[in-house]
Design goal:
305 residues, mainly alpha, 76% helix
């Protein structure tokens, strides 16, 4: 009976990182129109992490971890959430949610190069094709004059790339680090530590904190969904999958997230989908397929949003 139950959990976890994480671009875009980005991200993760600990205590999970595990969860929290997510939220002030998701879809390419640099992993022929296609796709995506001519867009694009490096290195770190064996507890510590660092960043940058009573209904709803689904459910699923299935399977979310994000951004925010963006997406995702195909080295991927 254990195996079928585990299969169901895996399927649900994939749904979370496919669809729920694909929608977080839209939710963050809506919320950041009214709220400062680091304030938004810190509230999201501190609240989600605290709720995780409350749930863990209710169901009887042991939340005790070693000092080394605490340090490792803090490092992962910084790479994934403080920098990797907080800066993405900031970039969404200048970049469309669908565009950001397409750019992030090049994450496997970044991880592949990081594994080559840090671990000396040889890049297989199929992956080399993927890298070439990925570079072409990214170039087509970011070279659109009607998009990059907007104020702040170039800086936003550059910072998203920096976030991809942070998430990529975080995925490599998590695969080797001594972390809490319980995925739920692991997620809670990453969120609380990452959220506290985001809170510090918000204060250092002098962001003006706005009372929840002054938020619009759509921002309140977006933040609740980000906390419950985009935070607790999807991020726990991500940590679960990283330790349960092969990393290249986790990386397949890269194909689905940008499609979900593009569709939602177009439908709810009237974001522009250009012909060049569609061509770039096809080339880029084809490159990601070549990178992720089984005739190559194993990689880790995820962003989120």
């Amino acid at each position: 009976m254990g195996k079928p139950r585990n299969t169901v959990l895996i399927i649900l976890a994939f749904f979370s990182i496919y669809v729920i994480w694909g929608s977080t671009y839209l939710l963050n875009k809506i919320a950041v129109t009214e709220l400062p980005p680091f304030m938004l991200a810190s509230i999201r993760f501190i609240t989600a992490g605290t709720l995780i600990f409350v749930i863990a205590k209710i169901v009887g999970f042991n939340i005790y971890i070693t000092r080394k595990q605490l340090i490792n969860t803090a490092i992962a929290g910084f790479l994934f959430l403080t920098f990797g997510n907080g800066v993405i939220v900031w970039a969404l002030k200048y970049v469309d949610s669908g565009f950001a998701a397409l750019e992030v879809s090049a994450q496997p390419l970044v991880v592949l190069l990081l594994m080559r640099f840090f671990d000396g992993k040889k890049i297989q022929p199929m992956s080399i094709i993927g890298v070439i296609l990925g570079v072409i796709g990214i170039y087509l995506l970011v070279s659109q004059k009607e998009i990059i001519s907007q104020e702040g867009t170039l800086l936003g694009i550059f910072m998203i790339f920096a976030c991809m490096i942070s998430w990529g290195y975080g995925s490599l770190f998590v695969s080797k680090a001594d972390l809490p064996s319980n995925y739920f507890v692991n997620t809670g510590y990453q969120m609380v530590t990452g959220g506290i660092m985001l809170l510090i960043a918000s204060l250092l940058f002098g962001e003006e904190w706005i009372s929840p009573t002054q938020w619009s209904n759509k921002v309140q709803l977006s933040l609740v969904m980000l906390i419950v689904f985009g935070g607790i459910v999807a991020f726990t699923s991500f940590n679960f999958l990283l330790k349960t299935v092969s990393p290249e399977k986790v990386a397949t979310s890269t194909y689905v997230n940008p499609i979900i994000a593009l569709a939602l951004g177009w439908y709810f925010l009237n974001e522009q989908i250009t012909t060049q963006s569609v061509i770039a997406a096809i080339i880029l995702l084809t490159g990601v397929y070549f990178i992720n195909t089984k005739k190559k080295l194993v990689i880790y991927s995820r962003f989120r949003k």
